[in-house]
Specification:
307 residues; mainly alpha; 15 helices
Length: 307
């Protein structure tokens, strides 16, 4: 599994990917007989980004901060989710090694979703950049061919064209960026609350106590990835518990499969939104950016040739 997490030397691992590796390494060390504090200390003695994180965590624990709260003080939200898993395992009596391994797998899937989203948005972003450069490219080509459109743009009518063209260009770019940002902000973090409930149940907690424990830990550690409304009576979590109770099925396998299903549904949703964006992005391009190209690049050229 370590091979799945390692990245090329030229690539900088994401924070979620780093958290997955830290969780997995701690799990391996715990299974080898180390305590959690000794595992963190061992990681701090290594080199690289993992060591930097472990050193900061160890420094906080030296100041009488618990290990979960020490991880929760890191900047990225994935560390607070990891801190909740450690706290839930500690308070429920679940094996911390299994908890870390479970969160590592969840982080890898979340990281894959986040990278997939970036890939899906690469096309629309490149299209906007390319079309935005067309007016400047047109002016540069005209100057290269010996037609000085800049003198035309400095004339009174040219200034009017310049104001109109720049206004159209800015409006189109802002509209396109808002559309891209809306897709980029689509929540790709799904199922963490189910993974944490899986951990709590591994400690022998009753379903209702497990829900209460996860919610309390998420609230105390301010974990953004764990929405507290996920634990209401009509939430998917309680529906899973109800299904397990009525069917007599084991709860933990149901939680695991539901978490994976939610992440798969998120990927499908992101793909559909990206496909829709590829079509919708034509609106600002057609209504604003391309007319801006005509106003800034084509009309000054025609005016310069006619003068």
């Amino acid at each position: 599994m370590f091979e799945k997490i390692r990245t090329k030397k030229k690539n900088v691992p994401t924070s979620t990917e780093t958290a997955a590796l830290v969780a997995l390494k701690i799990s391996v060390l715990l299974k080898g007989g180390m305590s959690l504090s000794r595992a963190v200390e061992h990681l701090s003695e290594q080199s690289g980004r993992l060591s930097d994180i472990a050193k900061r965590v160890k420094a906080r624990t030296d100041n009488s901060v618990s290990i979960p709260h020490a991880f929760a003080q890191e900047d990225e939200p994935c560390w607070r989710a990891f801190a909740v898993s450690l706290e839930v395992a500690r308070r429920s009596g679940a094996p911390i090694a299994h908890s870390c391994e479970r969160l590592s797998q969840a982080f890898l899937k979340i990281d894959s979703l986040q990278k997939k989203r970036e890939v899906l948005l690469a096309g629309p972003k490149s299209t906007v950049v390319l079309i935005t450069l067309l007016p400047l490219l047109s002016i540069a080509i005209s100057s290269f061919l010996g037609v000085d459109v800049l003198d035309e743009l400095y004339s009174p009518r040219g200034i009017m064209l310049l104001i109109l063209g720049v206004s159209l260009l800015i409006s189109g770019v802002l509209w396109a960026l808002v559309m891209i940002r809306n897709v980029a902000r689509s929540d790709s973090v799904e199922g963490i609350e189910l993974d944490l409930l899986w951990v709590a149940l591994a400690g022998g907690q009753s379903p209702q106590n497990a829900i209460r424990l996860v919610a309390d830990c998420a609230d105390a550690l301010r974990a953004e990835w764990i929405p507290l409304n996920s634990f209401t009576k009509r939430s998917p979590v309680n529906l899973i518990l109800q299904t397990a109770k009525e069917s007599g099925s084991p709860i933990r396998p149901l939680l695991g499969s539901e978490a994976d299903s939610k992440r798969q549904s998120t990927q499908t949703f992101l793909e559909k939104k990206a496909e829709s964006l590829a079509i919708k992005i034509l609106l600002p391009l057609g209504f604003f950016i391309l007319p801006s190209f005509v106003v800034l690049g084509v009309l000054p050229l025609v005016m310069a040739l006619m003068s």
